[in-house]
Model the fold of this input.
Amino acid sequence: GVVIPNIEFVGQWQATCNMDTLWQRFGHVSRGPGTEGVAVLFVEAKHFNNVKEKAVLAAEAQKKMHDA
Done:
């Protein structure tokens, strides 16, 4: 990959890739010794609806197993 020094901020709009790729992108922040930086992932709340739905379904399934 390309190593660009002095990157202090990485902003990623939406999680359009997997965690390995995000981690690599965020890893480009502050590569030099004694430097600091910030990496931010901006994601709209609607993109987490499927996670919420899965959690609700799992909780319902667990409750059914417990009640049986």
